[in-house]
Amino acid sequence: VAPDMAWLSVTAESRAAKPADAQSANAQAMDKIRAALRAAGVADAAVKTRSYNVEPQMQYTNGKSTVIGYIAQQSLDVRVDTLANLGKVIDAAGTAATSIGDIRYDTSKRTTLEGDALAMAVKDGVRRADQIAAAAGRSVLSVWHITDQHEPQMVPRPMALMAAAAKSAETTITPAEVEITASVTVTVILK
Predict the structure, then answer these.
(1) Rounded to a whole number, what is the distance in angstroms from the first to the last CA of the chain?
(2) Residue 9 burial (CB count, 10 A)
(3) Which of 14, 87, 131, 143 is most buried (CB neighbours < 10 A)?
């Protein structure tokens, strides 16, 4: 299935001598990223915090560790509802982000397509049970139990972006297709 939307991770990392200064610098970077995403057409509801960390930056010398500063890092999950805008969104986020990656493609029709795949899997399971029963000289009396072997599927396509230096052509992204699968176990009663 051709994807029509994507998710990506956008991260800002800030370093300072004090934790509060690292957090403040990170908050400013994130404000810039969110404003750039808004300007690129990404709705606020499509941006969620994925992780937030503040930790000491350590230096190890002669077996001793010393705190030399603090690192604040925040990552956002960004949903891009119009796949054609993905490059524009990446470029916008790149104006303040320290890393962009973990691109995952999806389809807005996932629920319908998963339902269709599930119906096909059940029909195929029953058809195969009929064939197996016939090969044993029996027939299927009824379906006794069906178990959905559901595993969410999003095809990840990693992509790294170095800090943006100069404005150049828009980033070009070529998405892969999204695979929608369903697997069921059909238990039948034979007669």
Answers:
(1) 40
(2) 20
(3) 14
